[in-house]
Fold these 4 entries.
Entry 1:
Amino acid sequence: MSGERQSHDGTRARRRFLTAAVLAPVAAGLGGCAAPTGAAPHRAEGLNGPPGGGHGHGGELLEPVPADGVDWSAVADAMGRPGEVKRGALYYTGFPRDDLTVVSEGITISPALALGSHTAMIRYADDSTLLMGDLVVLEEEFQAVSDALHTHGLMQTAIHKHLFAHSPEVWWTHVHGHGSDPVVLARGVRAALDRTATPPHDPSAAEGGGSPDLDTDGIDRALGVPGMVVGGIYKSLFARAEEVNDGERILPSGVGAISAFNFQPVGEGRAALNGDFAMIAEEVPKVLPRLRSGGIDLVSLHHHGLTDNPRLFFLHIWAVDDAVRLARALRPALELTHVVPLEQ
């Protein structure tokens, strides 16, 4: 990657080599491009930062540290529900909006397709924690949620929609925070969610859901990655292949830089497709027309973060058709972006 910083002990270089070796057989055929460098660092105001301000030593970027082997119970208590460590790198908490019945273009939207609030916490070597997330909020809930986030020192880094004309009106807002105490961050998220009708955690709810009525093998072959079932939705996930930073902090693979394609079965092998592409600037004008030539609708184009490097643009998409045909239409556009399959 052009302009890439290297640590003195070569750990990051070895990690990238091993990751590329593991993913290369699956990612064959996916295109690549160089990433820009030089984003300015940023820290959320209103939260207690780590000693020394949280900057890397000697001007170097801060590496994430493992999230497993850590007692997250106080965070779970503050959030009001348990989370889970994913890929050993982040603590993830989901808040599905099971209370909502949202209809878009005649399709009743499953919470797992597009209505799942979620947060991720990443630990760093300076004993600080970075919070990133996306909240699903009804229009009438939105201003109170915004006020609660601001009161607790959390930033909103994006406000947009993932769906075309739908009822009731729903908005999505990305949240961001950084501080020395992850419980403080969790309390801020909880305060915002308490301004919504997001239901409490249901321990009896099925995590994966039954197998969807789709040709999942055909989807996997078309996209070149094994998918996964979540809440009856079939998901295919890709991460940016280059290192992505949030200001002065390196993000673990798959945090804040995912291309995600969600297939909701609607009968007879057809699916409602919703999801997004993560792209750098020079990929955007290539991907959009390629998607349109495949019959896929463009919903919104925006940033999710403020200080990401490389600068990432996210394109939300929509289509209803045979699921395998949709996957085949996605592949040429996907090959124009620098991504690798995301291992779960």
Entry 2:
Amino acid sequence: MHADLGPWPRPVSLTDIEYAVLRHIRLHPGKSRTEIAAALGLSKSMLTKAVANFDRFKLVREERATLDDGERGQPPLRLSLNDNAFHSIGIYIRQGLYAVTRSDLSGNIQERVSRQVDALIEPILDDIARLIETSPSPILGVGHAVPALVGEDGTLFEVTPTQAALPLSELAERISARFRLPVYWDNGAYCAAAFEAHRPHTDHRCLFYISLDFGIGGGVVTKGTVFRGAYNQASNIGALIPETGPRPNLSDLARHLGCSLERLSEDFLSALFQEGDSRLLAWIDDRGRKLSRPLATVVQLFNPDAIVVVGFFPRKVLERLCERIDLGALDVAGRRPLTRPTLAVTRLLGPAGLAEAASLLPIAAELLGQHSPRANAYRTR
């Protein structure tokens, strides 16, 4: 069934210039009007007009700076987001488990729910209802990090095989029907890449994100915008590693350890790592080396200033995996190597981390002027 979510009344009406100003304020809170105008190349009157429109929706606040000892004159007004002007909901589901979050405009989690359940839809709807009822602010929409590739029109066309039975479209339809809110969804790696690039006080010029969960996902954000390619399939790093070969994800590790996928909980893997389990350590070392060529390809093609790793593995497992990755694997002797990006593990780990990342989708679509695919029904291509 096609999920026709219908035209939604936008809670805020902004121009392209106002979107740019709001993005800058979110990334660089506490800047003065003069600093913002200079950074964006705007006239004072254009910025004044933008801030006046923000005032209509109480999107920003201005606070007088304090002078340092010895300074004189009127201290400037500094602009920051009014985080509680709106909130948003983020969700992530997998078989038998889900996470739901409510975030403010700066991406701070105000409330989080994670549950292990047999039936997914009704408990999720009930938790969303409770988060909406307890929110001090209007809800912009619902963002869903999905284990799939998503077309520009919001159609899912490749779901991770182990998660193909998830009721993704039905859940989107039920959310929109019950709460009359727009539902946005995107590949989990794209969600996490955009969230990482849009954190306040972050200034990544080009960031690559790799997600190791039930599959392998990738995302690139350049100057604050997710790079999607011509067909919304860019950065699909999993395609560089054959399905028949060793892939650093949960399904691959389950086969390596000879256990069920369901057994690979964070507690179980943490205990194995703490014990120094030889099978787990051998898998980490081997898969880290096998990630070297794909990620070295990323360095050569995109030259990012940061590569960030997320996944459904304990932090220490991912950190050891990163230690085995050689980002210079494709360097050519005699040619000056490209500047290396930093390689680090994100704080957005596990289902709750992806739900947190998904909460940015409504904010990006409604307030930052960026494309977030609206949920559409699943169909194969």
Entry 3:
Amino acid sequence: MAIMTSSTTFQPVLERIAEEIERTPGRGRPADYIPALAACDPRSFGMAVADLDGTVHGVGEWRRPFSAQSLTKVFTLALDLAREGDALWEHVGREPSGNRFNSLVQLEYENGIPRNPFINAGALVVTDRLHTRTGDASGELLSFLRTESGNPGLTFDQEVAASESAHGDRNAALGHFMASYGNIDNPVPTLLEQYFRQCSIAASCADLALATGFLARHGIRADGTRLLTRSQAKQINAIMLTCGTYDAAGDFAYRVGLPGKSGVGGGIIAVVPGRCTLCVWSPGLDERGNSVAGVAALDRFTTLTGLSVF
């Protein structure tokens, strides 16, 4: 295993990983419950690593936009936590759920308080609270991603948003159920519109690796201003490690050893605090909703570089 220094380029490592992934036979299946995502080729693959100074290394389809989906939950969490601080944790927990990302099971037992911000129920709460504070949660998110990635062309994918809305009954159920406990401020239809727009943002591995950089810089944005306190950045990284890949978080921590967040569009973002950020994309998913090739690629990255939080 090679331990990488700050002057070492990631490009040879990425190229080796891409070659290994290309030889991997099983890639999983795209998310078929969102029709706009079902047609994606499960063998597509891209990966990018962004240094703290904004230098980006990439391989494969690393500049091809894809549906960010639940990756956006990390950014809405950061934007809301920056505004309201610890008061947020009165409305959403910080524990792994042990259930699927769209489960309703625990909400009744726990009085409408979702287990964590990265399952759908928790993300709805965070989006609701950000919307109350900004008047346009999805717009605030898009503006942030454009600025941090340096890509003003990032936008919502209206086809994906419409597809999610047409098949969003379970998310609607989650929203109404939490509203019955007083844990949702805005009208549920308004919240769902914001949430579906949030999840529909299309961005590339390069865009998302750059946008995640503030977590590797301990809360500092690309322009040098502070979004989060060092403690808040640590908190988000910790929740990513324990909850970011749904009920596979333990296996992800075991294999990869980095804070990470997956999305059913096939993307995974990951953070090496104080060093770099990564985004990998391959739309074939396992039964828990995580990219098969994406997890394998991150596993190889930490093995080849020696970079992990452990």
Entry 4:
Amino acid sequence: MISLLIGLGVSLIVTLVGTPMLIKLVHKLHYGQYIRQDGPQSHLVKRGTPTLGGVVINLAIVLGWAASALYRYIAYHDVPSWTALLVLFAMLSMGLLGFIDDFAKVRKKQNEGLSVGGKFFGQFVFATMFAILALMMPTKNGFPSAQAGISFIEHRIISFEFAGRVVAIVLFVIWVNFLMTAWTNAFNLTDGLDGLASGSSMVAFIGYAMIAYWESYHLKGAGHSGFAYSVSDPQDLAILAACAVAACFGFLWYNTNPAKIFMGDTGSLALGGLFAALSITTHTEVLAVVLGGLFVMETCSDVIQVGYFKMTHKRVFKMAPIHHHFELCGWQENTVVVRFWMIEMLFVLVGLVLFYSNWLVGSGLF
């Protein structure tokens, strides 16, 4: 618990102190956000708002986790886990792609950065590396960082082992690529209003902090009663999720309407990569659809809008993603943001109820 609190505290301090410093630097370099011309006209006043805020979010999570790991090493000689480093790799690699995209936008002085092909290629390379390492890398407690299959909660709904190890690895690589691409784009689409992505991400990572913390006290072979999990180093995963909560919370202080800085793709892609990696390493890839329900809703609205328009040349929503639809219906920006936070809270609550109900059933208590 102390190590978790250290991670929380350091991550919060880094964002609260580091974000205004970054705002001054970005102002000095004239790295302002360029607003899409086809978006709501009310957003044009945001042009020039400092971007690249995701840099401080990434830094806060890394430093928070590192401070926690240092404390555990000094106090208990507990070395950092490979699983945590792997999850950090997923976050930072996706954040790097986002940084390249953001930097290209401010250099070109337009809202088009890294090409779609370039972004997908980068995601493919990093997601493939993550997938292979997650299956191959040795861990402290002997459980692999990931399971070669699709898991709801711990147990695999579909196992990729049906045709041998090589086929299982190939299928798992494809599955991880899908998850990384889907979640990074979902978080990116949600980053469209002041505080929407940072607040919603904070709520989503609260869910994963609680899940990983519960798993850390119910590991197979640890002697605890009830259903047990074969998850690798869940305590480290809980600390990482908690650091993400604190980083988003601290960043939200400056990102709330009217935003003094945007997280940009540097932040949204990194948080999406972190969410995807946590779902894989906690063996809850399908449950993540519920825990990140708001992000799924935003993505589905965009897919529906584009697909329906291509078929009929008509629109289902006034504008997609769906948060813009409600803006154009007359809702104030703050109203949309707070109500969407509430929706994400409900999704996380349902996800946690499903997780705990699964443990009760698995323990024979329900």
